[in-house]
What we know:
single chain, 6-stranded mixed sheet, 8 helices, 6 strands, 37% helix, 10% strand, binds 2-phosphoglyceric acid
Amino acid sequence: MVHTLVLIRHGESQWNKENRFCGWVDQPLSETGEGEAKAAGVLLKNEGYEFDLAYTSFLKRAIKTCEIVLEEMDLMWIPVSKDWHLNERMYGALQGLNKADTAAKYGDDQVLIWRRSYDTPPPPAPEDHEFYPGKEAKYDAIPRDQIPRQECLKDTVERVLPYWNSEIAPAIKSGKKLLIAAHGNSLRALVKYLDDISDDAILKVNIPTGVPLMYHLDDNLRPIKMEGSAEPLSGKYLGDQDAIAAAAAAVAAQGKSK
Length: 258
Ligand SMILES: O=C(O)[C@@H](CO)OP(=O)(O)O
């Protein structure tokens, strides 16, 4: 049996718009982001997609994207699981800073390493940092010593994967059709695992906001490469491919000093 899985990064957030590192800071969608989520829902509906279950993070930009997509598809009744394991990568002391200003201060190369390397974490956020998540009620259930102060992509893979294995993979194997509405880096973590992308090659993967990314998985949940897939991903973005490639390039350019 071929399983269809749709991943979607949330629509543009307020801090995407302001070009600020966001991580676990709970920023809302911008108006453009809401429009992107709507367009994604319309596209999925028009192309005949259906979902039995949806998964999202604890962050409102992803939750809202999920909700808008399901609303457009007339699927608001399906169960939605929210879990912090699908949160964006925790950006440490960079959270709140403007990306271009940070590149001007530390250099484009350093910011590229912080943003896209596999195993170099950003500087940690101290517990008294303005955006330290341990102060938020929604993380009360996480033992305090497990609340990240910073995460590199490797750390993000290490928290996304157990959730994939325990919750998401069994649901797919049972034949359910899933939507996962998450974040640029929690989805990079997931596709790195699914497509077995090397630590070097993942550096160049940038996921645009609000664009459905469709995967076909075999019975072992290994991806089946599709025609028109977004190399090195086996999955395929739905929509205008030139516009999507330009949007991914724009995400990459956010970390340049200009
Ligand atoms: O700021 C963030 O949390 C992420 C996603 O918006 O940014 P980046 O693309 O720089 O990893």
